[in-house]
């Protein structure tokens, strides 16, 4: 199957069901993301890991956007493959191709059997045009130097009517606005070690800008949902009560968007 997806098969070394670039990039950069996102300390209990993923509102909404897909899904920034594994649990008829900058993460996601195949790469997707029925991108777009170019690549590899599901932090969250009033830099990641700015987040979005960039790149946005509070984020109870009377763009810490390749009939 994977032979039909890749544009330049000869550039890869096959390691089981993982396809690793023969010409390696910046290994320090690869290791940074592997260490930062748990690649070296993976939970090998598949059922436990997937259950945790589906119990997290952000991850569950991101996955459920593609629950009715028939065909092949591309998981961008796969990491250990927990979103892929959760998606395959609720839809066992799909095939998932993982894509990650780290060769170790690629091999681990295959080893855990969360993806059917895994491919190493970076910004330019090595896949043929109009080949995937769906694309899932969990908390990745905020890490990209050129998100517009990457969205163009996603549009290219999606079939007509194919669906994109992504999650990203909402920089307009009320807590960030209060930080700005106090002269502090807004934070979009729950990392206590980051005192001044977001060490790994280099692009920032809110409900308006995520819709705007998707539509600018040709997508038809079906919905943008909010996630109020991640488990790792603590907020005082009196403030929570006030939040229910405020607009979504103030009260939702995270966003989950679903969009389609525009101007074509959707096929499910």
Q: Describe it for me?
A:
The protein is built from 11 helices and 9 strands. With 268 residues, it is of the alpha/beta class. It has helices at residues 2-5, 27-36, 46-55, 57-64, 82-90, 103-111, 147-157, 174-181, 207-216, 237-243, 248-251, and strands at 12-15, 18-21, 72-76, 95-100, 117-120, 132-138, 158-169, 219-227, 254-261. The chain is globular. The model has no long low-confidence stretch (mean pLDDT 82). It starts with a helix and ends in a 7-residue tail after the last strand.
What would a concise description of this structure say?
The protein has helices spanning 2-5, 27-36, 46-55, 57-64, 82-90, 103-111, 147-157, 174-181, 207-216, 237-243, 248-251, and strands at residues 12-15, 18-21, 72-76, 95-100, 117-120, 132-138, 158-169, 219-227, 254-261. With 268 residues, it is an alpha/beta fold.
Distance between the termini: 22 Å
Structural class: alpha/beta
Helix proportion range: 25-40%
Using only C-alpha atoms, the radius of gyration works out to: 18 Å
Sheet with most strands: strand arrangement = 1-2-5-4-3-6-7-9-8
How confident overall, as mean pLDDT? Answer: 82
The CATH class label is Alpha Beta
**Biggest sheet overview:** 9 strands, mixed
Report the CATH superfamily.
Vaccinia Virus protein VP39
Q: Any idea what the shape is?
A: globular
Strand content: 15-25%
Number of E-type strands:
9
For the structure shown, list the relevant keywords:
nine-stranded mixed beta sheet; 268 residues; Rossmann fold
Topology:
Blueprint: H1 2-5, E1 12-15, E2 18-21, H2 27-36, H3 46-55, H4 57-64, E3 72-76, H5 82-90, E4 95-100, H6 103-111, E5 117-120, E6 132-138, H7 147-157, E7 158-169, H8 174-181, H9 207-216, E8 219-227, H10 237-243, H11 248-251, E9 254-261
Parallel strand pairs: 2-5, 3-4, 3-6, 4-5, 6-7
Antiparallel strand pairs: 1-2, 7-9, 8-9
Helix pairs in contact: 3-5, 4-5
